[in-house]
């Protein structure tokens, strides 16, 4: 008997070692993806649990939905991607306006 553990991976051929590494990485990716999906569902449950109380909150919800939508867009249509980017830019710009005198009292801001 020896006190040193035997490293079984060293006793396999290169192809078997590579296959083992690929399986381990795939398992890790699947676990990370499952965690990401769970956190995304938690975020969505929290984000959409109640109605927005302010325009910036509504913009945050719309921004989230647009980002999710743009992630599913085909990269073949740059026109749609530029429109989504422009709307997200507008939301970011308008959400930073917090002073009441910066807004016209007649028009709601996002």
Describe the structure.
64% of the residues lie in helices and 0% in strands. The chain has three helices and no strands. The radius of gyration is 25 Å and the shape is elongated. Residues 99-103 have low confidence and may be disordered.
Run of helices and strands: HHH
**Termini gap:** 72 Å
Q: Strand-residue fraction?
A: under 5%
Largest sheet: none
Structural class: mainly alpha
**General form:** elongated
Helix content class: 55-70%
Individual helix count: 3
Question: If you average the pLDDT, what whole number results?
Answer: 80
- Mind telling me the C-alpha Rg? 25 Å
The low-confidence runs, each spanning 5 or more residues with pLDDT under 50, are 99-103
Number of E-type strands? 0
Layout of strands and helices, then pairs:
Layout (H helix, E strand, L loop, with lengths): L13 H34 L7 H18 L5 H18 L15
């Amino acid at each position: 008997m020896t006190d040193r553990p035997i490293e079984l991976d060293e006793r396999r051929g290169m192809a078997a070692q590579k296959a083992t590494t690929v399986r381990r990485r795939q398992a890790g990716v699947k676990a990370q993806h499952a965690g990401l999906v769970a956190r995304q569902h938690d975020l969505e449950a929290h984000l959409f649990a109640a109605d927005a109380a302010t325009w910036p909150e509504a913009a945050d919800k719309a921004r989230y939905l647009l980002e999710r939508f743009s992630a599913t867009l085909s990269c073949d249509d740059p026109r749609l991607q530029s429109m989504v980017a422009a709307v997200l830019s507008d939301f970011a710009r308008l959400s930073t306006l917090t002073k009441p005198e910066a807004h016209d009292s007649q028009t709601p801001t996002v």
